Amino acid sequence: MTEPTTEPEHDQIEHGHIEHGRIELSAVSLDSEFIAGDELAGPDTAEYATRLGDDALVLAQRLGSWISRAPELEEDVALGNIALDLLGHARSLLRYAGTASGRSEDDLAYWRDEHDFRSAHLMEQPNGDFAHTIVRQFAVSHYLFELYERLRASADPTLAAIAAKAVKEVDYHRDHADQWMLRLALGTDESRRRTVTALFDLWPYVEELFTDDELFDRLEDVAPRPSSLRPAFDASIRPVLDETGLELPAVFTASGGGRHGRHSEHLGPMLAEMQVLARQFPGATW
Length: 286
What we know:
CATH superfamily: Ferritin, core subunit, four-helix bundle
Largest sheet: 2 strands, antiparallel
Number of helices: 9
Order of helices and strands: EEHHHHHHHHH
CATH class: Mainly Alpha
Radius of gyration: 19 Å
CATH architecture: Up-down Bundle
């Protein structure tokens, strides 16, 4: 593996603009990790794929921060594997979204600014303590399972293929979150207190996942309306809530806006950390 090149080549500089180039791995192929086809996404489909891809990318980055910090070694591996699954989903979705504008998944991940991202606010929330991370995973994995289960029937063959692969992985994520919800809520007084606090802190952001907008009027056969996923989501989480005796808090609904580029205060610093290497050394190759 060669050392990174930190100076842009001469033909990358034109009219004061530095092309960021691409990162290449000399000995490792990552193509098998994502779904790619020959189809080009239309503008509306690209917008939808960007929303899902940004959700997966941002949450993967959050979960990756737990590596070496989880409460037990096995959980280091589990959260890292979930993050890698989500990163694979993000690559597939962002690569497809980029076909509408001639950009790669790396272009979309590293060279957009905060207001260009379309992630939901729940994905952006800080990890907090372990209970906060598990409650976030509980909500997100149950939502994603219902979403990808429905998206497998999409009239768009690329989205259907991505969903068919992703739903199998998200099913494991869902089981992982369920088991931890049981352990935390039925464990010690302290672990239950932290779980209840996490529900109170995070549940206001759940509603945004199920909010329709005008995009779905134009994607009738391509994507399910988010609101149509809510009944199955509620039914899916109910057995865990019943077994633990947890009640969903009667809290306000957060304003949201992530689907339209209006983000929480937490996304900007996270993107700065995620994007710094690519932006510090544009055109670097390994």
